[in-house]
């Protein structure tokens, strides 16, 4: 049984690695990965693949990349711009052809992706597998909604619907249009249409022709509300569920060990998932001048309640170590363990409107969702165990309130516990449901062409 995974971000790899570990212990499978765009952690990812007994099929060639960049650098800017445009238009079709050859050569039985993103390689790989009638499994790794790509692309002029041709295309292909934006630049969107690679909703990265393993009843409803076909979405739970179940079953011992490892006082544990920098890319707005200002403000707010909480910060993997200096200066402990193993051990979880808040809900831990980049997503609206804030003053105020009023924190925990079953599948059956889905997909697959 040959299984092929596609990784385009470090976050995707974390979830796909968990699934690969699950399969390794339960099924006889040859597991291979395609790894892209994960610098500077690509080498670390490839090292973890070796530990898994999996292969990386596209070992990066630094020399080839340097040669390509060197060649382009001597060309006039106008020529480079034309070449980039041509490459963007031709890339999806060329990738499909390349992936079809790879899938045939590998005799792939199942393709596993973390999303079907029209702006990434996953769209081409899923399309290639569909043409060959190879089963596709999508393991979501984040909280998908159309507002996220719109927020990321809103500052790019190439995506704004301004010119007559853009308006004409949006009128005839309205699925590409959202909030006055095109999901891809016009020429690329048109190329996707002409090549037959356009998904039914380019703004949603989970509703392609693949079986979707829904993490919880809440996410099952969410995917169906996004327009995913009912027969393509199955409630299975997620590979991370086994981590939660193990941590919750041994919570007291693990909390004691965690305190010893990070020299934490015997107080309620406040776990903070520090967000990455979105200010330097221009894809977000904030009350802070820059990312250093943001980190300093978070450090101040957290240190202000460190007499009531044992504060532990888990920085996002993309954060450079030097950016964490304000935390160290204030004596705040920094953890680099898997966030999934830490969330069940905390008493309060703090994150920046993150998909990881789903984990806190599933584990019954109260959460603060600080919309520090002011994306205004409605992912957790109406949940009594999640407090949402969007400015530093409100953030400091709610931290101070929870630090000084233990009954308020306990009430939040009770409210969160009432939603836990809706947002998680911690019944001990996620592993078997995921394995059963794999068996069903592969067993039902016709012979590849």
Task: State the gist of this model.
The chain is an alpha/beta fold. 47% of the residues lie in helices and 13% in strands.
Task: Set out the fold topology.
Layout: E1 2-7, H1 10-26, E2 30-35, H2 42-52, E3 55-56, H3 62-73, H4 77-106, E4 110-113, H5 121-131, E5 136-138, H6 147-153, H7 164-172, E6 177-178, E7 181-182, H8 186-194, E8 211-214, H9 217-225, E9 233-235, H10 241-249, H11 251-262, E10 269-274, H12 291-303, E11 310-315, H13 325-329, E12 333-334, H14 339-342, E13 348-351, H15 357-362, E14 367-370, E15 386-389, H16 392-404, H17 406-423, H18 430-443
Parallel strand pairs: 1-2, 1-4, 2-3, 4-5, 5-8, 8-9, 10-11, 10-13, 11-12, 13-14, 14-15
Antiparallel strand pairs: 6-7
Number of helices: 18
Topology, number of strands: 15
What is the overall shape? globular
- The CATH architecture of the largest domain: 3-Layer(aba) Sandwich
Average pLDDT metric: 92
> How helical, in percent, are the residues?
40-55%
Major beta-sheet overview: 7 strands, parallel
